[in-house]
Design brief:
Peptidase S1 domain-containing protein; about 25% strand; TRYPSIN_SER; Thrombin, subunit H; five-stranded antiparallel sheet; disulfide bond; single chain; alpha+beta
């Protein structure tokens, strides 16, 4: 699914009570049709590496309104935002 800028995502969810935080990112098709859905929470949002050799995780399925709805992208936790915490936690767990 294509990524959506933070500005566009905030605009799309402007009339809903949920807020798009800096630790979130949005992805989905403008016309809908493909998206994460109920039961997908906690699953990965993957992106192809620039060289085309493999994938890396950029997000974690968080929430959205319905499934694959037009003009309402899925909302994901942005993995990069929490990289330091992830690394610190992994280090502490291995000690």
């Amino acid at each position: 699914v294509p990524f959506i800028s933070d500005e566009d995502c905030r605009y799309k969810y402007n009339y809903y009570p949920s807020q798009i935080e800096h630790s979130m990112l949005c992805a989905g098709y403008e016309k809908g049709g493909k998206d994460s859905c109920q039961g997908d929470s906690g699953g990965p949002l993957m992106k192809h590496k620039a060289d085309g050799e493999g994938l890396y995780q950029v997000g974690i399925v968080s929430w959205g309104f319905g499934c694959a709805r037009a003009r309402l992208p899925g909302v994901y936790t942005e993995t990069a935002y929490f990289t330091k915490w992830i690394l610190d936690t992994m280090k502490a767990m291995s000690e």
